[in-house]
Amino acid sequence: MDESADGLHGAGGDEESAGATLDTRKAEGPDPVIGAGLALFGIFVMGLGGARDLHYVFNAGMFVAVGGAVTFVLFVALTAMKERTKR
Q1: pLDDT tens figures, 4-56
Q2: 23 and 48 assigned to the same domain
Q3: Contact at 8 Å (CB) between 75 and 28?
């Protein structure tokens, strides 16, 4: 490993590896965690709306949760399709 002037390993910055990392991230596909996060946020909003008898807030949370679940499934499918084309 290279040592830079301050004595830290890897602080020099390898531009070739940075480009390779970017290429692998593009090849992986979208991250399904985005959809999972939306679904969990929607469930949280549903809980808040249900606890306060706010039906419109509960319904909004339901739409966010369902949208997050659909996004999660879509991103997993897109990632699987990209992995399949690599072979």
Answers
A1: 566 666 555 555 565 666 566 666 778 999 999 999 999 999 999 999 999 99
A2: no
A3: no
Give yes or no: residues 46 and 78 share one domain.
Answer: yes
Which is nearest to 76 in space by CA: 32, 26, 24?
A: 32
Exposure b/e, 45-67, CB count within 10 A at least 16 = b? bbeebeeeeeeebbeebbebbee
CA-closest candidate to residue 82, choices 21, 26, 23, 19: 26
What total number of domains does the chain contain? 2
* 15 and 35 fall within a common domain: no
The answer to whether residues 36 and 71 belong to one domain is yes
Tell me, yes or no, whether 80 and 51 share the same domain.
yes
- pLDDT tens, position by position, 45-78: 999 999 999 999 999 999 999 999 999 999 999 9
27 token code pair: 């090849």
